[in-house]
Design goal:
By secondary structure, the chain is an alpha/beta fold. Helices cover about 35% and strands about 10% of the residues. It has a domain of about 140 residues. The protein has 18 helices and 15 strands. α6 runs antiparallel to α7. The longest helix is centred in the last third of the chain and has 21 residues. The N terminus is likely disordered.
Amino acid sequence: MTQPKPPEDANPIDRRRFLFGVAASGLGAAGGMGAPEWADADPGEVDLETLRAAAKLSGLEFTDEELKAALDDLARVWPRWRRATGLPNGTAPTLGRVDVPPARTASPWKPSDASDDVAPEEASGPLHYQPAHVLARRIRKGEITSLALTRHFLDRMKRWDPKLLCVVTLLEERALAQAKAADADLAAGRVRSALHGVPWGVKDLFAVPGAPTTWGARPFEHQVLDETAEVVARLDEAGCVLLAKLSTGALAMGDRWFRGRTRNPWNLEQGSSGSSAGPASATAAGLVGFAIGTETLGSIVSPCTRCGTTGLRPTFGRVSRAGAMALSWSMDKAGPLARSIRDAELVLEIIAGSDPKDVDTVPRDFGSEVAKPLAEIRVGRVDLGGRGRRDAEAYERVLREVEALGLRTRVVTLPRPDRRMMAILDVEAAAAFDDITRDGRVRELVAQGEGSWPRIFRAARFIPGVEYVQACRMRTALEARMREAMAEVDVLVIPSYAQGILLTTNLTGHPTAVMPRKAGSGRSISFVGRLWGERTVVRLARAWQESTGYHRVHPKL
């Protein structure tokens, strides 16, 4: 039976079953589909009474309707757990941390070294659509003040947010004070960073004192956390101006939150995808200079694909998540969404680094890491096999554009992720929100249907602990196979949802840059690097992006 093709930009968490169903087939896209062959598997002798008794052991009370839904959800996963993993006894479970090779010590190349060298085409067009590094240069040159730029973006935010629904909390007073301080610093000869004075926005998973941190979910609509997320603190110190808390799909899923659905600036009838819905929408619409989002399984890649923005998801452990909502401790990552890959790297320079408040961060100095010279970068590609003609032609066009930079590509055979590893995300998310499952507030979330967090949280209560550990051990084996696949290449150029790459790299922690491959098309290409290889990823991605110019086309609101 031929499986239907999903939209390329579908959110991988929202459309999880398609990802699992095609991972083994090699299609590797994310989207909706009919039930795969294992969907109707018989769960055996388990019935409502069995689940009710199991819930009682954990002190939980679910309604009959909720138990029936959990039974349906579990029927899809039980057959997977009834076969052995085939792993050798010595394979230990991976709990998120990745290998940390020593950093190279050669003289570093950094984009900030050339931050005053701006291509004329980057500095053209409306001010609000110019890249952040161009705006920062204009501030340093005295062509505009941070205060004037901040007011410009605030006015745009007030004008367009009613249509886009991307702003949760406007931080106008804080922003104006920061902009005045940035201008005062500059007048005194102090430049705090390459993005000094640039306005930005943060996904509303990160804490900012005095402002609600809602996580996009009605149970937390009025939650105020008395702390400053580490990412926010570092950007404050860098002289950047925080304009607003931007929308996230409820508890980091999709683009629907308690006030409605965040919109795609290219098509106001369409959602922006998620869960970094507000950061992508606001950046694409020219409401901020750049934004910070998070990804567990596609929440940067997916909205960047939909909205035509550039995202840089760093290696797991590169950026602190302290002060941010946890969904899956071993998979959560924070990173920038911007209008160019150069902007994204400049942001990463500011926010990267170890933090004692986040035990998964590592003591690596991103500023001293070195990119390979462009001519020496080894580029990998994949064989799309059964993918459709249009997808194959679009991919070949991108590869020709990469090869026009003077590079050759070689075919890489990727490992395919075992869908049983999704137990890692399900179990960790259920643990993170155990309290609202127990006290019933999970029933207040906007989404309650199949594939929603409430159903995932309940079903995950019945995943045996042994199977969670087995999934972690399979993750260890996947990491080894991914290291082997990337051994002969520095950067893999691949369609963003091909061959299960999104699930694989979110499990293994590999960094990914995602960029539009055709302006306004809702299509993207991903540049996947080796662990801790963001500099080389950006070197190649920047050369390709600047040679094609797809990122310079913006929606006409």
